[in-house]
Each structure stands twice: as C-alpha cells, then as structure tokens.
Amino acid sequence: MSIAPERIKLSGWQPGFFGDHNLTAALLDRVVPDRPGVVYDSSFHNACLNSRALELAGIGADTPDPPNGHILRDGQGRATGMLHEEAIQWAVGRLPQLTDDHWYQGLLAGQAHANAHGITGVLDPCVKEQEARIYARGLAEDALKTFVRRLGYTGNAGTAAEAFLEDHRRHTQAAHSIHERIFFDTDLTRPAWGLPARPSV
C-alpha cells in the first residue's frame, strides 16, 4: 500500500474473488471518494480506478483503448474503472505521480513487513529505471537488508534484447541480482531467455 497526499495505490486483490464482474469505480468511491485511487490485482495485470482517477486520466465514453490495453465498459459504453494490461500504465501516467521518497518509504515498509514474517529474500518481477534507482538508494544508505532477485521487463515486444542488456550493465549493482530474464509479457508466442548476472555480450 502506498498513500500520498495526491493519490492512493493499493494492490493484492485476487482474481476470482474480484474482477470485471464486481470491482468498479463506484465501489472504490465508497472508500476513496476525494482523491485518485488505483487498486491492482495480485498479478498487476489488472487494476481498478476510482472515479477521481478516471477523471484525471481523461478516460471517458469516447476514450479508445491504448495499444496493448483494454478499458472495460458497461452496457452503456461507460468506463467501469477496470483496466487491463498496458491501459493501466497509460492511465496511471496521467495521475499525480508518487515521488522517489514515497517509493523509498514503501520499500522500507514492505521490507520491514517481510522481515517480520521471516522473509529475507524476494523476487522483483519488473525492475525498470525507477525501481533500480530506489534499490540503489537503499544500498547506498545501507538500508536494503533483503536479498532481491531482479527480473528486467521489456513492456514493448519490439524492444531489442541488446537494449535490455545495456540497461542491465548499468543497473546490475542496484540490487542483489543473480540472474536476469527477458520476457515479453502476455505474448505466449515470444521466447524467454535466461541470462547470467553479468553477460559477456
């Protein structure tokens, strides 16, 4: 959970209990009526926005689906609040942004919660520029006590593997990384490659 004056971000709802059929902006409005709220499912492939978030993101009856994403609509063509895949980041990018300090405090809070339950290592499935920067800060301040296995993510299936490897070279020290995996998410026709932590190519 991340709470800032500008917006609220939650995650962890389970598909099957919640989903297109019962999770809507109207439901979230009952909990967060006055500022934008985003609630991700446990996989982060689906998310629901409240009405304020829909308004700030500019999602209306005539808003087309962004590339590789879907805006769920009701029988009258109105956005319900539920978004799938790349529509999520497309919309969230139009909301008030959390600062690095917000993300860093979230890292420390999440680490403390994990450690309190005996968890000393995690796998982060989507380390991009921002995440690498936050992990690097944790290392620099000697605050990152949890073993983090990082997986890089190429959100665009057309992104060259070489570009990812270059990113890896620049950010290997941003977390305790022992391997990398390039994957083209939600596209089962694309291959995945297991790579060593310090590729020689």
SSE order and pairing:
Layout (H helix, E strand, L loop, with lengths): L1 E2 L4 E6 L11 H5 L7 E5 L4 E4 L1 H7 L11 E5 L5 E7 H7 L7 H17 L4 E7 L1 H12 L6 E6 L8 H11 L7 E4 L10 E4 L5
Parallel strand pairs: 2-3, 7-8
Antiparallel strand pairs: 1-2, 3-4, 4-6, 5-6, 9-10
Any overview of this molecule?
This protein has helices spanning 25-29, 51-57, 86-92, 100-116, 129-140, 161-171, and strands spanning 2-3, 8-13, 37-41, 46-49, 69-73, 79-85, 121-127, 147-152, 179-182, 193-196. With 201 residues, the protein is of the alpha+beta class. The chain has two domains: 2-92, Diaminopimelate Epimerase, Chain A, domain 1 (Roll), CATH 3.10.310.70; 100-196, Rossmann fold (3-Layer(aba) Sandwich), CATH 3.40.50. The protein has a six-stranded mixed sheet. A two-stranded parallel sheet has the order 7-8. A two-stranded antiparallel sheet has the order 9-10. Strand 7, helix 5 and strand 8 (147-152) form a beta-alpha-beta unit. The longest helix has 17 residues, at 100-116. Mean pLDDT is 79; it is low at 156-162, 172-179 and 186-201.
Question: Could you name the key traits of this structure?
Answer:
two-stranded parallel ribbon; alpha+beta; 10 strands; disordered C terminus; Diaminopimelate Epimerase, Chain A, domain 1; 201 residues; 25% strand; 6 helices; Rossmann fold; 29% helix; elongated; six-stranded mixed beta sheet
